[in-house]
Amino acid sequence: MQVQGPPASAAEVLAARTRTAALHVAAVHRQARRLEEPRLWSTRTRRILKDGRTARRGRSVRATSAGLRTLGRRP
User: Fold this and answer.
1) Which H or E run includes 2?
2) Would you say 63 and 69 are in contact if contact means Cβ atoms under 8 Å apart?
3) What pLDDT does residue 4 have?
4) Residue 75 lies in a domain
5) For the segment 1-41, what is each residue's pLDDT rounded down to a tens digit?
6) Count of domains forming the chain
7) Residue 46's domain spans which residues?
8) Structural contact between residues 45 and 19, judged by C-beta atoms closer than 8 angstroms
9) Residue 31 lies in a domain
10) What is the pLDDT of residue 75?
11) How many angstroms separate the CA atoms of 57 and 37, rounded?
């Protein structure tokens, strides 16, 4: 999810709460000694975190830090 403007701060809070809830679900599955579910939920939380970073950054770190070309775009 990418939101710009005044609601952007609300979107960050919503993403953080969603991630916290998903981590809680993973912990519950881990306590129940289920094997696959904690891994799935942890992967989902990692994706939420990475998507948020990507949205804030706006473009490739490689392009920004090194001035290198990205696929189809100029840095």
Assistant:
1) none
2) yes
3) 63
4) no
5) 565 666 667 778 888 888 899 889 999 988 999 888 888 88
6) 1
7) 8-66
8) yes
9) yes
10) 47
11) 30
